[in-house]
Amino acid sequence: MKDGGHGRARDATTDATTDAEHVPEAAVGLPGIAVPAVRRRRDEELEADGWVRRFTGSPPRLGELTELYESTGQDVLLDDVLPGELATECQGCTLALAMFKVIYTRRGKG
């Protein structure tokens, strides 16, 4: 995966999957939050490249937090929400898939 460049957020493309398996909170290190297996796998891929998952959000918070993280010298990656991450009643909502992104950061290179 190529770096999007210091100071610029980028969208990552991912394989879409409908795996909705959930894991115990302790397995992912997020107290009180069960993370779908599809996201856990994506987290592991990105973590190997130095990325840390921060949160899932939508505009306008995405833009605000992207700007904040970049102002601290961090690289920012906006990753698509995967279909298996949505609640069952939201599975067919293309608007939710288009609006929500997962924000990852890592120390800026350079």
Based on helices, strands and strand pairing, what is the structural class?
A: alpha+beta
N-end to C-end Cα span: 17 Å
Order of neighbouring strands in the sheet with most strands: 1-3-4-2
- Global shape: flat
Poorly predicted tracts of residues? 1-8, 13-30
Give the strand tally.
4
Q: How would you sum up this structure, described in words?
A:
With 110 residues, the chain is α+β, with helices and mostly antiparallel strands. It is built from 4 helices and 4 strands. A 4-stranded mixed β-sheet has the order 1-3-4-2, with helices on both faces. The longest helix is centred in the middle third of the chain and has 11 residues, at 37-47. The model is unreliable at 1-8 and 13-30 (pLDDT under 50).
List keywords for this structure.
single chain, 110 residues, alpha+beta, 4 helices, flat, disordered N terminus
Sum this structure up briefly.
29% of the residues lie in helices and 21% in strands. The protein is α+β, with helices and mostly antiparallel strands.
Layout of helices and strands:
Elements: E1 10-12, H1 25-28, H2 37-47, E2 52-57, H3 61-71, E3 74-80, H4 94-99, E4 101-107
Parallel strand pairs: 1-3
Antiparallel strand pairs: 2-4, 3-4
